[in-house]
Amino acid sequence: MRVDKGNAGVAFDNMMDRPIKGTKDWHSYSVILDVPQDATGIFFGILLDRTGAVWLNGVQFDVVGADVPAMQVGSSGSSQLKGPANLTFEG
Q: Which domain holds residue 56?
């Protein structure tokens, strides 16, 4: 998922650090990004590496509270949270 503001990307997460591999039953996956009020586009898609098939169902965009940390790919290529998360190790 990518969020753009004009010609610039302002948020991006491609799940590089948490790829879905192998045959899986239906499961929910989330990408959480901050979307500025003046964003001009939100883009999402699926990247299939090598052979296989991908099915997508029930896609939705939700507004979440500020207490839900955003995920974003940093310069190292790994997803980074914008602050501590799940410090109680519950859930």
A: 1-84
Model confidence over 28-82: pLDDT tens digits?
Answer: 889 999 999 999 999 999 988 888 899 989 889 999 888 888 886 643 344 444 5
6 domain-assigned: yes
Closest by Cα among 76, 85, 91 to 16: 76
- Reported pTM: 0.70
Which residues contact residue 64 at a Cβ distance below 8 angstroms, ignoring those fewer than 6 apart?
32
Comparing CA positions, the residue from 3, 59, 60 lying closest to residue 33 is 3
Q: Look-up: residue for tokens 């109680």?
A: 88
What are the backbone dihedrals phi and psi of residue 9, each rounded to the nearest 5 degrees, phi first? -80, 130
Is 89 within the bounds of a domain?
A: no
Residue 61 lies in a domain: yes
Question: What is the total count of domains within the chain?
Answer: 1
In a domain, 27, yes or no: yes
